[in-house]
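EI: anyone free to look at a 76-residue chain?
SC: sure, send it
EI:
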Amino acid sequence: MQPGIMPGARLAKEEVNYRIHEQCLSCDHFYASGNCDLVAGNISPNNICDKFEVKSAPQYKDKQFFEGEYKKATGS
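SC: here you go
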């Protein structure tokens, strides 16, 4: 799955063992807006789940990227 593409149905935090001690902040599926490609709800950058994947090399963030982030954060 490509980072940044929202799947149709997201998983509940309980289903993916969402927990403290590691960090979603360094996961490919996490966004600074507190959203995740895979897990529903507000996501803390300081927690982690079983779907954790190490963040790939930084990518150039253009206008389209930030518009997508805005849409995820506002639900529009």
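EI: The first helix runs from residue 63 to 74.
SC: 👍
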